Amino acid sequence: MQIADSVLGAVCAVLGAYMLYAASGFPSFPGQPYGAALLPSLLGVAFIVSGVLLALRDLRARRLGSTIVLFAIQPALKDRRGAISGALIIAVVLMQILFGDLIGFIPVSLVMLTVILLWFGVRVLAALFFAALGTGMCWWLFSFVLKVPLPRGILDGVL
Amino acid sequence: MISLDVLSQAASLAFSVQVIAIVIAAAAFGMFVGAMPGLTATMATALLVPVTFFMDPVPALAAIVAASGMAIYAGDIPGALLRMPGTPASAAYVEDSHQLALKGKLNLSLGVSLTVSSVGGLFGVVILILCAPVLAEFALNFTSFEFFWLATLGLSCAIFIAARDPLKAAVSLFIGLALSTVGLDPASGHPRFTFGVVDLLAGVEFVPAMIGLFAIGEILRGAIRLHSDPVPQVPPTRGPLFKGMGGILRKYPRNILRSSALGTVIGALPGSGADIAAWMAYAVSKRFSKTPEEYGKGSVEGLVDASSANNAAVGGSWIPALVFGIPGDSITAIVIGVLYMKGMNPGPTVFLINPQLIYAVFMIFILTNIVMLPLGWATVKVARTVLSVPRRILLPLVLTFCIVGSFALTSSSFGIALMLVIGLLGWVMEDNGFPMAPIILGLILGQLFERTFVTSMIKADGDLLAFFERPIAAGLGVFVFLVWGGALIGAVLAARRRRMAAEMDARL
Amino acid sequence: MTTFDTLNRRTVLKGAAGLGALSLLPGSALAADYPTRPVELICPWSAGGGTDATGRMIAALLEKRLGQTFNVVNRTGGSGVVGHSAIANAKNDGYAIGTVTVEIAMMHWVGLTDLTPADYTPLGLYNADNPGVTVSANSEYKDIKALSAAIKASAPGTFKASGTGQGGIWHLALVGWMLALGLAANHVTWVPSEGSAPAMQDLVAGGIDIVTASLAETKAMVDAGRAVNLALMGDERVASYPDVPTLKENGMDFTLATWRSIGGPLGMPQEAIDAVSAALAEIVVDPEFVEFMSGRGFGIKYLAPAEHAAFMAQTDKVMGEALAAAGLAT
User: Fold this and answer.
1) Are residues A80 and A151 both part of a single domain?
2) CA-wise closest residue to B158 among B388, B464, B443
3) What tens-digit pLDDT sequence spans chain C (330 residues)?
4) What subunits touch chain A, counting only 3 or more CB pairs under 8 A?
5) How far is the C-alpha of B263 from the C-alpha of C185, rounded, in Å?
6) What residue in A sits closest to C36 (Cα-Cα)?
7) Domains in chain A: how many in total?
């Protein structure tokens, strides 16, 4: 995703303004002009300045005659398969965040890994095998070897 | 000096079958954890604590020494292969090691970092053994004033590392710093930018953020381009790993020495560890290199410097931990807990009360850095076969490890959410030419920078001159100004030259 | 798949160690149906710290008595808010408990959380420590009387002290001491730090004058001859430092303690409460535990659940007053 410097600069400046605004509400240290607001305020100013500088680049480029594209998407992402692949990666992570605790790591991981492997063009048996392998390895490594309990979810009573 | 009797006792403790077995197992574990994007050296150590709980002191510490040292090296492997640094300490030079690998020089890239890691690690250990009390004494002179200048110096590294687009690199650094302000303010305890989310009070956990920036970005790119336009892969490489290493060691002896020394000292300073050591060594290396233009495009020299520094820091960070019970970095913070747990209370007395235990640990340190060579060789050999696994299978599996690794760091799905959000941010930023490395630098140093500034101001009652009153602080402060002054003058001169050239063009 | 080789070697070893440890565990006759699967022990502080270490020891000993794994889970950050929230919000089936520390009686007063000690099922208190007054070995003040007199005679803000963050337990120790001296709460400036280790570093490096932290935390530097404990803010002297006088002995009526306890979310099943608290009562007199605690310089103080609840409520009140006096409560 290519975004024009002027847009990025605007985002920076807005972020900077927000940080300045938020920092104005932070208490300063008793008897000190410095405190929680210091670094956020400095950063707020820094973001605004660099945002303006970024935006100026576009203006200068336009003055020199180049056309500015505000927003461009790379070819791979325009390709529907590419977009779906990217979305699937995000979906895998999201499913684990949303349903990992409720349903458990194992079922979510098994299903999502199988789906994504199939989409990537892995044959059914191989996809099932690698999904089981990846899930099993993580579960075994973390729950038993490293003693980090992964969410059990619906398998609570079974494991 | 220590008696032969103590040394022989130490040797019999260190070289028992049980301890050697544990060292090898822990080293293999460290290699695995370090080589897995999403699992870090600090994590390897934290995860070993419950296991070491049931061990005797020497095997317990041996396990930690072996695992942490290996993990720091192994972090270079996924960095070179997949452009995903395995540990934060490898983030500084991931671009160089990956670019080398893309050019078909994977063996050179990994061979160099393995060899100099071992050399740097040994250097750190030797300093630890010989100079621990002296260096600890030096570190004890550091108050918040000195640490403030140190943090500023660390942030200044960004000036030297930022290559193509200084403005965008600066924005990246600011974003890293801004992320570090999330959570409870280090001084007053006031919550900032938490938006009412309890988990955000803890701030942006560093490791999920790094996994997001590097691994998630890379996985997304890989997935999106999988069908149409695959991401360039590291070509399969054969041949001996250590070929030409003698030449490298002969070519860069001064770099190795300089960076090992720098790494050891930075490791020995409380609160800064292998990651900062790698950054500083890389920046110094680029500054004094005859070929600074190669940095970021596959510079062997930068790799030599940064990679020896981060392993030297491992030994260095034990110095204040052993002598004064002050953690040199996040790994030794855990080590101190283990020392207490085993009744080896840190302090100068640790060398007097149970000297055989400490010297046994030192021997294991040396052993580990030697074992690193064959074990690293084996790991690289295994890791190279990763290349023969098709991306369509590898990407989902690595993604699963990233998810679980982020989860493990916060023990909640919050870590995963953090990884995803920062990963998406990083992905968009990188597509638009913002470098990732300064974000990490800002995130590492932000809190130290802010905390030391505010506490120094409180101590000085707001008097800025106090930052130059102590000798070391004054020295560091002047140095920082020289660095900035030099960079500014350089930038102004370059700008003037460019403008004059432009005017000439216009006139012609 | 490429990593199987390394994995196996390690796991074989770990597995063996784990089995060895498990086989030593005698079957427990305490609770019939609890626990039937691994229990999580949530620790709000990071691995290697005092709460983590004592928590792990307790987890190991609980495991021995109750015959199930007790996994210590570190939920760190936010000055303990994150972990304490995780304990209070955990599923109340008895399979998630945690180490509840003194901070729970403080955080809500400064507006960091809504949680109070009343939001936990108390399962037993196991540790309490008094802070000391520690100065650098180079300090010109050799005893607490001289230091107190010098502080009284000084202009406000001359002396600087540290030990933890703003409004942390050791900050309150300083505030209490100042109030006992009849001075303003901020007569000695508090320099916030990220825990006692950096504060001790700053003390020895000459950046600050005083550290108020537990004797376990000052131990390394004191043993190294770099720092000196001048006083203890407890009711009586402790066995590990018989030469350190209390503030009370020197006419300053102030005591304070940090404490650690085991607690769970509200509404836990009774059999789980009974099983854990009964086991904890045994653990605090277990020689293995006693030796561990004294080795690290931690005091043991046991309170059964009922007294534990009353104690937490009382601390809560005292902390509220102290924080208000320090001008930190919201």
Assistant:
1) yes
2) B443
3) 333 333 333 333 343 333 333 333 333 334 457 888 889 899 998 776 788 889 988 998 998 899 888 888 888 877 788 899 999 998 888 999 999 999 999 989 988 889 999 999 999 999 999 999 999 999 999 999 999 999 999 999 899 999 888 888 999 999 999 999 999 988 999 998 877 888 888 999 899 999 999 988 888 889 888 999 999 999 989 888 899 999 999 999 898 999 999 999 999 999 999 999 999 999 999 998 998 888 778 889 999 999 999 999 999 998 998 888 888 877
4) B, C
5) 43
6) A157
7) 2
**B455 vs C192: CB contact, 8 Å cut-off?**
yes
User: Is the bond into B355 cis (omega within 30 degrees of 0)?
Assistant: no
Number of H helices, E strands in chain B: 23, 2
Report how far residue A75's alpha carbon sits from residue A18's, in angstroms, rounded to the nearest whole number: 34
A61 plus A126 within the same structural domain: no
Which residues of B, range 210-249, sit inside 8 Å of A by Cβ? 216, 219-220, 223-229
Boundary residue ending a domain (A47, A72, A97): A72
Q: What are phi and psi of A127, to 5 degrees?
A: -60, -45
Handedness of CA B290, B295, B301, B305 (dihedral sign): positive
Rounded CA separation C250/B452 (Å): 35
**pLDDT tens digit sequence for A95-123:** 999 998 889 999 999 999 999 999 999 99
Give the number of other CB atoms < 10 A from CB of residue B97: 32
pTM for the whole thing?
A: 0.81
**β-pairing, B183-184 with C160-162?**
unpaired
Query: Does A81 share its domain with A10?
Result: no
Name residue C228's beta-bridge partners: C135
* The residue type at B275: D
Q: Check whether residue A96 and residue A113 sit in a common domain.
A: yes
Residue B25 is nearest to which of C10, C77, C198, comparing CB atoms? C10
B393 Cβ under 8 Å from any chain A Cβ: yes
DSSP B109: H
| A105-119 and A124-139 helices, crossing angle to 10° | 150
Query: Chain A neighbours among C 174-213 (CB < 8 Å)?
Result: 186, 189
Strand pairing category for C189-190 and C132-136: unpaired
Best B45, B47, B458, B476 residue to mutate vs chain C (most C CBs within 10 Å)? B458
Q: What are the residue ranges of helices labelled H in B195-317?
A: 206-210, 217-224, 245-251, 253-268, 274-288, 300-316
> For residue A129, which residues of chain B lie inside 8 Å, CB to CB?
none
Nearest by Cα to B87 from B110, B65, B70 = B70
Nearest to B45 by CA among B24, B19, B25, B65: B65
In order of their start, the domains of chain C are 39-128+258-325 (3.40.190.150), 132-250 (3.40.190.10)
**Which of C222, C59, C65, C261 is CA-nearest to residue C133?**
C222
Tell me which residue range forms the domain holding A51. 2-72
